[in-house]
């Protein structure tokens, strides 16, 4: 661990807008590299490494406007955190897997790794801005630098990176910052719920409506179809929490920790739901 005395100047906070998908500059990597299985999220099976049958030659989706009604809900939930355009344009210089079929397997492998790395950047950017601890901020910045150098470097840099090891290091930093942030909220929490609110908790279908959940640690919790309408999620650690079909109408997530776009995309909410910075209201919330 780095001591405060040996700190180098911390990197400036990362603009998370650069971690937004830019499908127009991507070779539809999510529609080809990854597979999916027939389920509530997809109406058909698709093996990894093959193009979806709805993919057009120009890498657009032929059913983009009707994905949910046609059963492709999983496509509307997925988010690459900007890895798609980075791999397509940065690592493969704008040459697609159609133009150069021999690059296909490396491109797909790079996308799988880069997607995880970009997601880590998303979390680290938040950790860096939420902590008041210079050591924690510096550790987040160092991890960011390692990842940014790899994804901004060459293909071999991405493919040779030990993603799992980095993931473990990032996780420790995120938890450290989470503890610091949540400590400021704990006094405002709901005592009756305290024992049920823990990492990995099974809160499927739970009625948590109009609750003050402030400062809870719901990292990895199962909130599938939970009713969180009008609840206050300020300072709640939601790292990896499963929000499928959770109700977030009127909920306050403005200061919630580690929320991602895929989590919101999987949930239901409305125009009154308060969202963290850099996240947008999913289009299906508007339709509702
Ligand atoms: S349905 Fe459309 S968005 Fe989904 S994988 Fe196929 S081409 Fe991609």
From TrEMBL:
This is Pentapeptide repeat-containing protein. Gene3D superfamilies: E3 ubiquitin-protein ligase SopA. It comes from Cryobacterium frigoriphilum. Pfam families: Pentapeptide.
């Amino acid at each position: 661990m780095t001591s405060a005395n040996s700190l180098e100047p911390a990197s400036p906070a990362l603009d998370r807008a650069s971690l937004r998908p830019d499908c127009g500059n991507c070779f539809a990597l999510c529609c080809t590299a990854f597979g999916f299985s027939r389920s509530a999220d997809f109406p058909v099976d698709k093996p990894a490494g093959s193009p979806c049958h709805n993919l057009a030659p120009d890498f657009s989706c032929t059913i983009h406007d009707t994905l949910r009604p046609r059963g492709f809900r999983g496509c509307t939930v997925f988010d690459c955190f900007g890895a798609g355009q980075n791999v397509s344009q940065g690592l493969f210089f704008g040459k697609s897997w159609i133009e150069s079929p021999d690059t296909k397997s490396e491109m797909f492998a790079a996308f799988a790794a880069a997607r995880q790395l970009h997601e880590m950047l998303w979390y680290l950017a938040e950790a860096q801005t939420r902590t008041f601890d210079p050591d924690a901020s510096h550790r987040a910045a160092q991890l960011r630098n390692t990842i940014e150098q790899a994804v901004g470097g060459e293909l071999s840099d991405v493919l040779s990176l030990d993603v799992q090891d980095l993931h473990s290091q990032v996780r420790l930093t995120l938890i450290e910052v989470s503890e610091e942030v949540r400590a400021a909220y704990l006094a405002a929490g709901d005592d009756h719920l305290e024992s049920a609110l823990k990492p990995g908790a099974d809160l499927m279908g739970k009625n948590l409506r109009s609750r003050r959940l402030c400062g809870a640690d719901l990292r990895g919790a199962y909130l599938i179809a939970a009713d969180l309408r009008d609840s206050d999620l300020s300072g709640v650690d939601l790292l990896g929490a499963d929000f499928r079909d959770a109700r977030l109408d009127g909920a306050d997530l403005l200061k919630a920790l580690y929320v991602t776009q895929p989590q919101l995309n999987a949930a239901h909410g409305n125009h009154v739901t308060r969202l963290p910075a850099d996240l947008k209201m999913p289009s299906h919330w508007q339709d509702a």
